[in-house]
Design goal:
The complex is a heterotrimer. Chain A is α/β, with parallel strands linked by helices. Chain A folds into 2 domains: 2-121, Glutathione S-transferase Yfyf (Class Pi), Chain A, domain 2, CATH 1.20.1050.140; 133-300, Rossmann fold, CATH 3.40.50. In chain A, 55% of the residues lie in helices and 10% in strands. In chain A, the strands form 2 sheets. Chain A has a 4-stranded parallel beta sheet. Chain A has a 4-stranded parallel beta sheet with strand order 6-5-7-8, sandwiched between helices. In chain A, helix 13 links the parallel strand 7 and strand 8. By secondary structure, chain B is mostly helical. Chain B folds into 2 domains: 3-95, Alpha-helical ferredoxin (Fumarate Reductase Iron-sulfur Protein, Chain B, domain 2); 101-167, no CATH class. In chain B, 64% of the residues lie in helices and 0% in strands. Chain B contains 10 helices and no strands. By secondary structure, chain C is α/β, with parallel strands linked by helices. Chain C folds into 5 domains: 6-135, 3-Layer(aba) Sandwich (Rossmann fold); 145-237 and 320-334 and 501-570, FAD/NAD(P)-binding domain (3-Layer(bba) Sandwich); 251-307, no CATH class; 336-499, FAD/NAD(P)-binding domain (3-Layer(bba) Sandwich), CATH 3.50.50.60; 580-635, Alpha-Beta Plaits (2-Layer Sandwich). Chain C contains 17 helices and 34 strands. In chain C, helix 6 runs parallel beside helix 14 and helix 10 (357-364) packs across helix 11. Chain C is globular and about 90 Å long. The chains are: A alpha/beta, B mainly alpha, C alpha/beta. At the A-B interface, helix 1, helix 2, helix 3, helix 4 and helix 9 of A face helix 3, helix 5, helix 6, helix 7 and helix 8 of B. The structure holds flavin-adenine dinucleotide and iron/sulfur cluster (5 copies).
């Protein structure tokens, strides 16, 4: 499989180690990534709020770039995924709009046709590659308790996105389980992390985060697993800000899912990923778990037919 | 020009009212809204109500507080697309020069180099250190052209001047 | 055919028609058309003086074709036909142009165009009137017996009314006992009288009535025939217990080793594989649930047969097919509770302390699984803080759009009883409280006065504290515009709405009944024929027709019974002659018409030609349109008549 890779501004320039982890793991599943001259997706709360036409045209330009190469787009950020998917939905449903957009793209030598699909890493791993194929490659399980946060923009609007059940998301939990983690149920699982209002009113944003973190902290997980760089930053750096504002004491490590996948596949250089984390975690060392895994597989051999 | 855009605005409002009309003010949207829980100034139910009963965009500008999490949209029992409604309210408010400064700043950055926040040399360096490829960039002139042709540049200009007025 | 002499009568309908359409212009436009003898207008043609004008004109001008431009034929066609009968003119020589519903009411803002449209319609009516033919109304006899499908309170009430009036009743119920949902409820709003105290005497009466044959564990498989003469095939599944011999001693149940959740108790208690659904069941007999039985062979179990002194148990009971003939049918198949797990944000099915209205009813019942105590399922303690969430699965585009009508009052009833019994704090979130019935609003007010807190706002989400299993309920008090979060809630009751039962869908298919968009059975007219179906002789009653409380259910049941009696009392009825007829000269015997007729009205006669049964044919015209030989005519809607109308319309359009 070959994709036009769309890391998005936030991941590319603020969370490069998460991007690194994606680039590290995908070759192990025969996925090849191509970089194209994309702009920001663009972010709805900034661009679409100012002009709907600008939003859809920029998004169409991005998609058209991939179409010109005959590639589907692989997104890594929930926000980018939603923005591009909604734009695609609108352009495919509304030919007038598509024609208008193509008038402008013509000057750039591009055309939006509607031939490329938008796939998030979440979908690539769960729907395309599948839990079984992932767990078969795990050599160093990560035996920690986690809570998952799939993210607003992978779940909603459900009528367009179809990534997971918007009220009871379970797929990221299953992906975590396949790496040996124990996903915990917690309240407010589908609630927003607060990122969307940070630019406009940071206190409101951190108040939302406090609510979310309170529910998470109640079940005492070792880490939070996300699939979006913006959620990552909100949880990780946001905890400290929230602590400062509200006098709380949150200190839970955060992971972008593919970082843990890289660790579970026991890929070299995962240290450089973890070095960038601000809330540290001691993961069981690789030798220990490897042994465990070995004995486990040994055990299971006689029982298999 | 401004007459025409005013017409467009009224039309937009009319359409908006149509989509809002099924609302029976049940409060599922507000009860599901994470912002409303902590800052009741944003109440999606009241935003919808003011579109329906006052036929205009609420002037308080609270809709900018919306995090665009789409929880309200997901659960509305009458199928009112709140996310669209709140977005259009923001559009209209931006056309009136009410967009918050940080939104303007991000949009300016996007128009300049295709990315929401300015790409610093530090972050470029960090990528290089990690062994990540240098990402191809869009031609800034192309982005500017699209901003101009689709209205955002104009809205930005307008907001720049109003924020200028305010600071004077 | 004698020379056509057409009279045209224009009705003002007060100002309903005359206020919009210029009747003078209309009159001018049509009075010189061929065959038109006279054009008259009058304030109300349907009134006594109006009818007299009609009769006088028919006599005076020797009219043999009548056009009345007035309201919809659904309103006064029978009236005018009767006038024609009285004056000795065949009632089918009448054509009505609907210039009220189709013109003046909907084009009130454009009188000029309305007048033009009225002219068109009257011209077309005249064109058809030229070709109308006198028709006879065949008479059919009606059997004096009724099939009632569904033995809830609706079926029971209808059965007793009919049986007491001397008609034979077959009551078919799919469960082992009659009683329906009402037998599960504790007290009934708004008077709080005990549900089984008022229901069980009526059930017993049904069980003992000499005119009622009760068939439980039975479903209607096939119905053939038509009003007055329905042939019904009923399938009865084996009960394995002889209802005549069983003394309800319960010895069998005591020895049965199987325990499975009891449906009757909303699965909150257990029952045996051989059991009686509830103490006052009718018929009062046990039933063996073979699906959950260990196995009747001695090696597996087979204990109950040995234990039964009355020798009532027979392991080789077989499925039975019962065939009956009836004159009328009443469908009262009731409803099901909405499945609340479809509203995932409320956690039903995941959170043990989120329950539905039906479960609380069983808990409140002193004969129920908790002996009348409402308990928190997670630890069986008494809840101190309870929240009711209204409109779950109703008034919601995502599930059902309609209001379920009974859940507001049921919630208020339960809240009142819990509050009075235990003093728990109770909060009820609502959009509007629908307390429309007699004494309902007063009941709500006294419940509020008893300390139940009502909050206007629909609940957004319910969360469970994984440690304590307590719940958090989030809503908005929309009257204050303030967010509300209730923490440490012991019990949340979802006011689940009602939905049409799957079984209703099946019976609708068997009987060819229409279903409304909400899934319930469709009545022939929402106001004037609320319990008739579109099929003559078949009536609907109770929840099967739409959400309603017990008083409304019983009222409908009695209405359906009286509808059936009205037909059967007379013993015969006239069928409208709108049926199709086959011209044997042209029929090729190809049988295409037989395959397309949705009512199975066409058969092949002994001469090898198609023949239409007038009593079954609805005059839909499907066969007429399909017949390649043009051998079938739809009486009263002939090709010639319809073509003449179209031609008339087009002729004015072309030169205008
Ligand atoms: C929780 C709750 C509490 C309520 N409390 C009150 C109250 O306090 N006061 C009040 O006035 N109303 C109350 N109601 C409303 C009341 O229950 C209904 O009005 C009433 O039960 C309707 O009766 P029914 O006979 O139409 O339907 P049902 O009671 O549903 O009876 C239908 C019967 O038909 C049978 N059946 C279905 N399909 C077939 C088939 N194909 N063949 C044979 N048999 C079939 C079923 O087994 C059932 O026995 C309450 C409703 C609910 C949900
Ligand atoms: S959820 Fe929908 S119907 Fe309810 S108040 Fe909000 S917009 Fe209106
Ligand atoms: S989209 Fe905005 S208004 Fe709707 S729930 Fe999220 S923050 Fe609230
Ligand atoms: S089947 Fe026999 S043992 Fe069982 S209740 Fe009836 S009489 Fe008693
Ligand atoms: S044979 Fe079946 S029903 Fe009878 S006692 Fe045994 S398990 Fe129970
Ligand atoms: S009766 Fe009350 S709770 Fe039930 S659907 Fe109607 S308004 Fe909602």
């Amino acid at each position: 499989m070959k994709f036009a890779f769309f890391p998005g501004c936030t991941m590319a320039y603020r969370l490069p180690f998460a991007e690194k982890s994606i680039r590290m793991v995908v070759p192990h599943f025969d996925v090849e990534l191509v970089d194209l001259a994309f702009t920001c997706c663009p972010e709805p709360n900034t661009v679409r709020a100012l002009s709907d036409d600008t939003w859809i045209t920029l998004a169409a330009r991005n998609i058209a770039l991939a179409e010109a190469e005959g590639l589907n787009i692989l997104t890594a950020c929930a926000g980018c995924h939603e923005s591009l998917s909604l734009a695609k939905h609108e352009l495919d449903e509304n030919p007038d709009r598509k024609n208008k957009v193509n008038e402008l793209l013509k000057d750039l030598g591009l055309e939006y046709k509607g031939t490329s699909t938008i796939v998030h890493v979440h979908q690539l791993l769960f729907d395309e590659i599948g839990i079984e194929s992932i767990s078969s490659k795990v050599v160093r399980p990560v035996p920690i308790k986690v809570v998952t946060h799939t993210g607003c923009h992978l779940l909603r609007p459900e009528r367009v996105l179809h990534v997971d059940n918007a009220e009871v998301p379970v797929k990221l939990d299953m992906l975590c389980e396949s790496l040996g983690m124990v996903p915990l149920e917690y309240m407010d699982k589908t609630m927003c992390c607060g990122a969307g209002v940070r630019k406009i009113n940071s206190v409101t944003s951190y108040a939302i985060l406090r609510e979310k973190m309170t529910s998470i902290a109640m079940v005492e997980p070792n880490a939070i697993v996300v699939f979006c760089p913006t959620c990552f930053i909100t949880f990780e750096s946001g905890q400290r800000v929230a602590n400062r504002i509200f006098g709380t004491d949150f200190k839970i490590p955060v992971f972008y899912y593919t970082e843990l996948l890289a660790i579970a596949l026991n890929l070299p250089e995962t240290d450089i990923l973890l070095a960038e984390h601000r809330v540290k975690i001691e993961l069981p060392t690789s030798t220990e778990t490897k042994e465990e895994n070995k004995t486990e597989t040994k055990d299971s051999i006689p029982s298999s037919p | 020009m401004s007459d025409m855009s005013e017409d467009l605005q009224t039309n937009r409002l009319k359409e908006l009212k149509e989509t809002a009309l099924p609302c029976f003010q049940c409060g599922v949207c507000s009860s599901s809204c994470p912002v409303f829980r902590v800052s009741p100034e944003l109440n999606p139910r009241v935003s919808v109500d003011s579109i329906i009963s006052r036929g205009k965009v609420p002037s308080e500008g609270n809709e900018w507080l919306c995090a665009y999490c789409l929880m309200c949209d997901q659960r509305c029992p009458m199928g009112v697309s709140l996310a669209e409604i709140l977005m259009v309210i923001k559009n209209i408010s931006a056309k009136e020069g009410q967009a918050p400064p940080d939104v303007i700043e991000s949009a300016e950055s996007l128009m300049a180099d295709g990315c929401q926040s300015p790409i610093s040399s530090r972050s470029e360096k960090q990528r290089e250190d990690m062994g990540l490829p240098k990402l191809p960039r869009a031609d800034p002139e192309d982005v500017k052209m699209l901003f101009r042709a689709t209205g955002a540049a104009e809205v930005l200009e307008l907001n720049r001047s109003t924020s200028g007025e305010a600071s004077e | 055919m004698p020379e056509r002499r057409i009279g045209v009568f224009l009705c003002h309908c007060g100002s309903n028609i005359a206020g919009v359409i210029d009747l003078e212009v209309l009159k001018q436009a049509v009075q010189s058309l061929p065959d038109v003898e006279i054009v008259t207008d009058y304030k109300y043609v349907c009134s006594k003086p109006g009818q007299k004008i009609l009769k006088d004109s028919i006599k005076k001008h020797k009219l043999n074709g009548i056009v009345i431009a007035s309201c919809s034929p659904r309103m006064h066609e029978p009236t005018f036909r009767q006038v024609l009968r009285e004056i000795g003119l065949n009632p089918f020589l009448l054509e009505i142009a609907n210039i009220r519903e189709h013109v003046s009411w909907i084009h009130a803002n454009d009188p000029k165009a309305a007048t033009e449209k009225a002219i068109d319609l009257v011209r077309m009516a005249i064109a058809r009137a030229r070709l109308l033919e006198p028709l006879e109304e065949p008479e059919v006899s009606i059997k004096k017996s009724t099939l009632i499908v569904g033995g809830g309170i609706a079926g029971i009430s209808a059965a007793l009314d009919l049986a007491n009036a001397g008609f034979k009743v077959y009551l078919v119920e799919k469960e082992p006992s009659i009683g329906g949902k009402m037998s599960r409820w504790d007290k009934t709003f708004p008077t709080l009288d005990c549900s089984s105290c008022i229901l069980t005497p009526r059930m017993a009466e049904v069980g003992n009535h000499e005119n009622i044959t009760l068939l439980t564990m039975a479903q209607v498989e096939e119905v053939e025939g038509y009003v007055g003469n329905f042939k019904v095939k009923i399938k009865q599944i084996p009960r394995y217990v002889d209802i005549e011999k069983c003394t309800s001693c319960g010895d069998c149940s005591d020895i049965c080793p199987v325990d499975i959740p009891a449906e009757f108790d909303a699965n909150l208690s257990y029952r045996k594989a051989i059991y009686i659904p509830f103490a006052q069941a009718v018929p009062s007999a046990y039933v063996l649930d073979m699906e959950n039985c260990l196995g009747v062979e001695a090696v597996k179990c087979g204990k109950c047969e040995d234990k039964c002194e009355a020798k009532a148990i027979s392991y080789d009971d077989k499925e039975k097919i019962i065939e009956i003939e009836v004159g009328t049918i009443i469908v009262s198949t009731g409803f099901e509770l909405f499945d609340a797990s479809k509203k995932e944000e409320y956690g039903y099915g995941h959170f043990p302390n989120v329950v539905n209205l039906g479960e609380i009813e069983r808990m409140l019942s002193s004969a129920g699984p908790t002996r009348g105590h409402v308990l928190k399922p997670s630890n069986l303690t008494e809840p101190k803080k309870i929240v009711y969430v209204q409109c779950v699965g109703s008034r919601d585009e995502l599930t059902n759009r309609y209001c379920s009508r009974v859940c507001c009052m049921t919630a208020i009833k339960q809240a009142r009883m819990i509050r009075d019994k235990t003093g728990a704090s109770i909060y009820m979130f609502y959009i509007d409280l629908r307390t429309f019935g007699k004494g309902y609003e007063e009941f709500y007010e006294s419940t509020a006065a008893a300390g139940v807190t009502f909050i206007r706002g629909r609940v957004g989400e319910i969360l469970q504290n994984e440690k304590t299993m307590n719940l958090i309920v989030r809503g908005e008090d929309t009257l204050l515009g303030k967010p509300i979060q209730l923490d440490d809630v012991d019990l949340v009751v979802l006011s689940t709405g009602v939905v049409a039962a799957d079984a209703t869908n099946k019976i609708a298919h068997v009987l060819n009944l229409s279903i409304s968009p909400d899934g319930f059975l469709l009545e022939a007219h929402p106001k004037l024929r609320p319990v008739d179906s579109f099929n003559d002789g078949i009536f609907v009653a109770g929840m099967a027709q739409g959400p309603k409380d017990i008083p409304d259910t019983v009222a409908q049941a009695k209405a359906a019974a009286s509808g059936a009696m009205a037909l059967m009392g007379k013993g015969k009825i006239n069928v409208e002659p709108y049926y199709s007829v086959v011209d044997e000269e042209r029929c090729a015997g190809c049988q295409v018409c037989i395959s397309v007729c949705p009512y199975n009205a066409v058969t092949l006669n002994e001469r090898g030609y198609a023949e239409v049964n007038p009593a079954v044919c609805k005059g839909c015209g499907t066969c007429t349109a399909t017949c390649a030989s043009g051998a079938i005519t739809s009486q009263h809607y002939t090709d010639g008549q319809i073509a003449a109308m179209i031609q008339e319309y087009l002729s004015t359009r072309y030169w205008a």
